[in-house]
Amino acid sequence: MEIWINPACSKCRSAITLLDAEGADYTVRRYLEDVPSEDEIREVLTRLGLEPWDITRTQEAAAKELGVKEWARDAGSRERWVKALSEHPKLIQRPIITAQDGTAVVARTDDAVRDALSRES
User: Fold this and answer.
1) DSSP states along the chain
2) Second label for 110, Cα 20 to 30 Å away, from 14, 15, 62, 116?
3) Is the overall model pTM greater than 0.85, yes or no?
Protein backbone atom coordinates (compact mmCIF):
# COMPACT_ATOMS: atom_id res chain seq x y z
CA MET A 1 0.00 0.00 0.00
CA GLU A 2 1.26 3.46 -0.88
CA ILE A 3 -0.17 6.79 0.24
CA TRP A 4 0.46 10.00 -1.68
CA ILE A 5 0.59 12.86 0.80
CA ASN A 6 1.37 16.49 1.31
CA PRO A 7 2.62 16.68 4.93
CA ALA A 8 1.05 20.14 5.29
CA CYS A 9 -2.42 18.69 4.60
CA SER A 10 -4.56 17.87 7.65
CA LYS A 11 -6.49 15.14 5.75
CA CYS A 12 -3.17 13.48 4.90
CA ARG A 13 -2.01 13.61 8.51
CA SER A 14 -5.35 12.15 9.66
CA ALA A 15 -5.04 9.31 7.14
CA ILE A 16 -1.49 8.51 8.33
CA THR A 17 -2.65 8.55 11.97
CA LEU A 18 -5.43 6.06 11.17
CA LEU A 19 -3.11 3.81 9.13
CA ASP A 20 -0.66 3.79 12.04
CA ALA A 21 -3.44 3.07 14.56
CA GLU A 22 -4.51 0.10 12.44
CA GLY A 23 -0.93 -1.17 12.17
CA ALA A 24 -1.01 -0.90 8.37
CA ASP A 25 2.07 -1.62 6.28
CA TYR A 26 2.43 1.28 3.88
CA THR A 27 4.89 3.50 2.04
CA VAL A 28 4.63 7.29 2.10
CA ARG A 29 5.12 9.21 -1.12
CA ARG A 30 5.47 12.96 -0.74
CA TYR A 31 4.14 13.61 -4.20
CA LEU A 32 5.11 17.30 -4.23
CA GLU A 33 8.77 16.23 -3.93
CA ASP A 34 8.55 12.86 -5.72
CA VAL A 35 6.30 14.06 -8.53
CA PRO A 36 4.27 11.37 -10.30
CA SER A 37 4.92 10.96 -14.01
CA GLU A 38 2.09 11.20 -16.50
CA ASP A 39 2.11 7.38 -16.72
CA GLU A 40 1.85 7.07 -12.94
CA ILE A 41 -1.07 9.50 -12.92
CA ARG A 42 -2.81 7.50 -15.66
CA GLU A 43 -2.26 4.30 -13.66
CA VAL A 44 -3.68 5.81 -10.46
CA LEU A 45 -6.68 7.15 -12.39
CA THR A 46 -7.34 3.65 -13.75
CA ARG A 47 -7.06 2.21 -10.24
CA LEU A 48 -9.39 4.91 -8.90
CA GLY A 49 -11.85 4.47 -11.76
CA LEU A 50 -11.82 8.27 -12.17
CA GLU A 51 -10.90 10.89 -14.73
CA PRO A 52 -8.15 13.48 -14.15
CA TRP A 53 -10.66 16.29 -13.62
CA ASP A 54 -12.19 14.22 -10.80
CA ILE A 55 -8.96 14.47 -8.77
CA THR A 56 -7.99 18.04 -9.68
CA ARG A 57 -7.98 20.66 -6.95
CA THR A 58 -9.60 23.45 -8.97
CA GLN A 59 -9.31 26.06 -6.20
CA GLU A 60 -5.50 26.01 -6.15
CA ALA A 61 -3.72 29.10 -7.47
CA ALA A 62 -2.11 27.09 -10.29
CA ALA A 63 -5.53 25.80 -11.35
CA LYS A 64 -6.86 29.33 -11.54
CA GLU A 65 -3.79 30.48 -13.49
CA LEU A 66 -4.24 27.62 -15.96
CA GLY A 67 -8.00 28.17 -16.16
CA VAL A 68 -8.74 24.46 -15.66
CA LYS A 69 -12.36 25.13 -14.69
CA GLU A 70 -12.91 26.15 -18.31
CA TRP A 71 -11.23 23.08 -19.81
CA ALA A 72 -13.35 20.47 -21.56
CA ARG A 73 -13.95 17.32 -19.57
CA ASP A 74 -13.94 14.74 -22.32
CA ALA A 75 -11.74 12.01 -23.78
CA GLY A 76 -10.07 14.45 -26.17
CA SER A 77 -8.98 16.68 -23.28
CA ARG A 78 -7.89 13.90 -20.91
CA GLU A 79 -4.18 14.12 -21.75
CA ARG A 80 -4.16 17.89 -21.21
CA TRP A 81 -5.45 17.30 -17.67
CA VAL A 82 -2.95 14.48 -16.99
CA LYS A 83 -0.07 16.71 -18.16
CA ALA A 84 -1.26 19.54 -15.91
CA LEU A 85 -1.39 17.22 -12.89
CA SER A 86 2.15 16.02 -13.56
CA GLU A 87 3.50 19.53 -14.15
CA HIS A 88 1.60 21.00 -11.18
CA PRO A 89 1.34 18.20 -8.59
CA LYS A 90 -0.25 20.56 -6.07
CA LEU A 91 -3.40 20.16 -8.19
CA ILE A 92 -3.68 16.46 -7.27
CA GLN A 93 -6.38 15.70 -4.71
CA ARG A 94 -4.91 14.08 -1.62
CA PRO A 95 -4.33 11.74 0.04
CA ILE A 96 -4.50 8.90 -2.48
CA ILE A 97 -3.98 5.37 -1.21
CA THR A 98 -3.13 2.58 -3.65
CA ALA A 99 -4.07 -0.86 -2.36
CA GLN A 100 -2.44 -4.20 -3.09
CA ASP A 101 -5.61 -5.46 -4.80
CA GLY A 102 -4.96 -3.05 -7.68
CA THR A 103 -7.48 -0.41 -6.62
CA ALA A 104 -7.00 3.03 -5.11
CA VAL A 105 -9.06 5.51 -3.09
CA VAL A 106 -8.98 9.24 -2.49
CA ALA A 107 -8.78 8.95 1.30
CA ARG A 108 -10.17 12.28 2.51
CA THR A 109 -12.29 10.64 5.23
CA ASP A 110 -11.68 7.97 7.86
CA ASP A 111 -14.21 5.77 6.07
CA ALA A 112 -12.23 6.02 2.83
CA VAL A 113 -9.02 5.09 4.68
CA ARG A 114 -10.80 2.09 6.23
CA ASP A 115 -12.07 1.14 2.77
CA ALA A 116 -8.48 1.10 1.49
CA LEU A 117 -7.42 -0.98 4.51
CA SER A 118 -10.17 -3.49 3.82
CA ARG A 119 -8.75 -4.01 0.32
CA GLU A 120 -5.43 -5.17 1.73
CA SER A 121 -6.57 -8.55 3.01
Assistant:
1) -EEEE-TT-HHHHHHHHHHHHTT---EEEETTTSPPPHHHHHHHHHHHT--GGGGB-TTSHHHHHHTGGGS--SGGGHHHHHHHHHH-GGGB-S-EEE-TTS-EEE--SHHHHHHHHHTT-
2) 62
3) yes
